[in-house]
Specification:
- The chain has 193 residues and is α/β, with parallel strands linked by helices.
- It has one domain (37-190): Vaccinia Virus protein VP39 (Rossmann fold, 3-Layer(aba) Sandwich), CATH 3.40.50.
- It contains 5 helices and 10 strands; from the N terminus they run E-E-E-H-E-H-E-H-E-E-H-E-H-E-E.
- The strands form 2 sheets. The chain has a 7-stranded mixed beta sheet with strand order 6-5-4-7-8-10-9, with helices on both faces. Strands 1-2-3 form a 3-stranded mixed beta sheet.
- Helix 1 packs parallel to helix 2 and helix 4 packs parallel to helix 5.
- The mean pLDDT is 92.
């Protein structure tokens, strides 16, 4: 069993399938160990969880989770009173994410799939690598409903100028805040689109 504390709001418990006796609660996110990315141990995931907790929009809110992996960020949004849509190109990760949502009692408030939705969301999180963030920038920004919250993670410091340069004109609002954890960075854009 792996337990990761993510202050101020979350505790992530990852176990092998069928070995957990823990019950989900408003703070605890239960995950089954898998190859899907996102068990709360990586700095980029932890910064997304911290940003979501710190800038939590009023419930109910809708979140788009781009590159949803294990479903951890979508599950966190549901635990904060929101609804979430996770987009993931890895079909097996979507199966894992649905099972994790079921384990956490939030399956009715989250969906996972490969197709981009046409809707707009109060919060959009994308915890993926720089090249993918750069390629998807127009699609990602177009899914944020003003005044929105956009969190981009999976970056290192040398990625920031190029990513900010790509997103800032599309965003049209204040420059992003930068979260730092070890070598990893997350950008938090607030208040425009």
């Amino acid at each position: 069993m792996k337990v990761v504390e993510v202050p101020p709001r979350f505790r992530v418990v990852t176990t092998d399938e069928g070995t957990s006796t823990e019950e989900p609660d408003a703070r605890t996110i239960l995950l089954t160990r898998s190859s899907a990315f996102g068990d709360g141990g990586h700095e980029s995931t932890r910064m997304c969880l911290q940003a979501l907790a710190a800038f939590q929009p009023r419930a109910p809110f809708r979140l788009l989770d781009v590159g949803s992996g294990s479903g951890i960020l979508s599950i966190a949004a549901a635990k904060l009173g929101g609804e979430a849509v996770g987009i993931e190109i890895d079909r097996e990760a979507n199966v894992v994410a649905r099972e994790n949502a079921r384990r956490n009692g939030v399956l009715a408030r989250v969906t996972f799939g490969e197709a981009w939705p046409d809707d707009r969301y109060e919060v959009v999180l994308a915890n993926i690598l720089r090249d993918v963030l750069l390629e998807l920038a127009p699609k990602i920004v177009a899914r944020v409903r003003a005044p929105g919250l956009l969190v981009l993670s999976g970056l290192v410091s040398t990625d920031l100028p190029e990513v900010i340069g790509r997103y800032a004109p599309l965003w049209g609002g204040p420059r992003p805040e930068v979260f730092e954890r070890g070598p990893w960075r997350a950008l938090v854009f607030r208040g425009s689109v």
